[in-house]
């Protein structure tokens, strides 16, 4: 997509094409000759896995939309119709539903990979921000999609999330009414969520194109976090090296995906969603899907409605400014002993927040005397650390930490002492 | 184009600004229908009020009816519940309101202390609270733990406001009209 093209058209047709629409050149430069750092590990295969998952979700989604009916009277029944009557409907729906979860598994690994190896730092700030934007769009898409089966969790999840906008001062209630198209979640809401659920994946697709474009301008980061200095010594061509490695990583990932689709298709969902939506009866315990639980925990940890909403959105907003919060010049956690420790601590905090999000808020963890230490208190400590990590530790660590010596080049790190000195 | 940026505004400058402004207003006017179509439509707004016979609700019990797609609680309060609601020092409340201010007068002009009519939607994030649960004998929201008293006022938990009172009136001693 950028940089110097090495493509040479080999025959009359490709020469003719190349001077009119150089699309073969684009494909060659992007997926064949594109130089990738030779030290990439398997954590770098998740970009390809995510692209594949986006395509899977779009294809299964388009097909499911041929059978689904977005009205409150028929939505739940039409999903059961897909499961029982439509040819292979069950496998299409289970693939789509579990595919959403797998998509998030992959995106979380991809994001934490970026955090560990400092992939968000200059010159990859825009690349990182586009990624955050994709993540945000993914969450919106998943939310709209979860409403469509019109089960109890669909209805009450939608109620809770749309009411978040009601916390906006002055205009909140009008915004909520505008989102619903009524005075509560109803037919107009379901119909527009279906429309938006169909639209958003294509927005994601558009941002993915920009994301890959930005990637191919700055080049990939790599496990040692040292920029490519010599193309011949530090890189290998995308095809066959990265293509085959990505294909292997994808195959292993698909085994996990297939396990869920065929052996545990409902294990990641909530049984409550197999009960048709009842607008007058709230389930005893409302929980979002697992991939949104950490944010739900932050929302519930704050004893103020507006405050909770601000912190929840803030926990995602802070990711956007990460490139400017990190003051360290060293990218990879391999050479940052203190950063490495807080990285794992932060990962543990995120998982613990997820656990809190799935528990009853007043569940007592332990008691000291007459004081009960509930899930809410635990979530408050974790939420505090989440922000402390990014807003305080990120800027501070770069100033006080003494990084280990960083290798001279990618080639030197791969070959140890045997590397020929890089001719820059 | 000799001198567009002269110190003195020219006729041409005026035309540029006027054309730009006209185009901006035109674009805004074209966008508005695209935004406003999402607001409640005529059929939703036309949903009428409902009339309800409350004579069948026994003392100390509550029914839930649906009005404009929302649950409405109709609670026949006991002497004890009314006392409890009256005894509260309103300066301690998050959303200060007396019990009397949340009730309506009957056809005889007297305040109907026994009847509490509420929109059954938690003011936190819109769940339906459970009646006769929670430490204030009123309502408890299972989603995020807000607790309301026997007047539907917020006492504990994350909700900012009291449960809303819908517009209603007594048509007779046992009949109300909501909306």
Taking strands numbered 1, 2, ... along the chain, how are they ordered across the largest sheet of chain B? Answer: 5-6-7-8
- Quaternary class: heterodimer
Strand order of the largest sheet of chain A: 1-2
Mean pLDDT of chain B: 89
Secondary-structure-based class of chain A equals mainly alpha
Percent of residues in β-strands of chain B: 15-25%
Shape of chain A: globular
The counted number of beta strands of chain B is 10
Helix content of chain B: 10-25%
End-to-end distance of chain B: 66 Å
Uncertain residue segments of chain A: none
Overall structural class of chain B, as computed from helix and strand content, comes to alpha+beta
Largest sheet of chain B: 4 strands, antiparallel
User: Beta fraction of the residues of chain A?
Assistant: under 5%
Query: Hey, which two chains have the biggest interface?
Result: A-B, 37 and 30 residues
The helix tally of chain B amounts to 3
N- to C-terminal separation of chain A?
A: 24 Å
Can you characterise this structure?
The complex is a heterodimer of chains A (424) and B (179). Chain A has 424 residues and is mainly α. Helices cover 62% and strands 4% of the residues of chain A. Chain A has 17 helices and four strands. In chain A, strand 3 (364-368) and strand 4 form a beta hairpin. The longest helix of chain A is centred in the middle third of the chain and has 32 residues, at 187-218. Chain A is globular, with a radius of gyration of 24 Å. Chain A starts with 11 loop residues before the first helix and ends in a 9-residue tail after the last helix. The mean pLDDT of chain A is 93. In chain B, the strands form three sheets. A four-stranded antiparallel sheet of chain B has the order 5-6-7-8, with no helix packed on it. The chains are: A mainly alpha (424), B alpha+beta (179). The interface between A and B is medium-sized, with 37 and 30 residues.
What's a quick, concise take on this entry?
The complex is a heterodimer of chains A (424) and B (179). Chain A is mainly alpha-helical and 424 residues long.
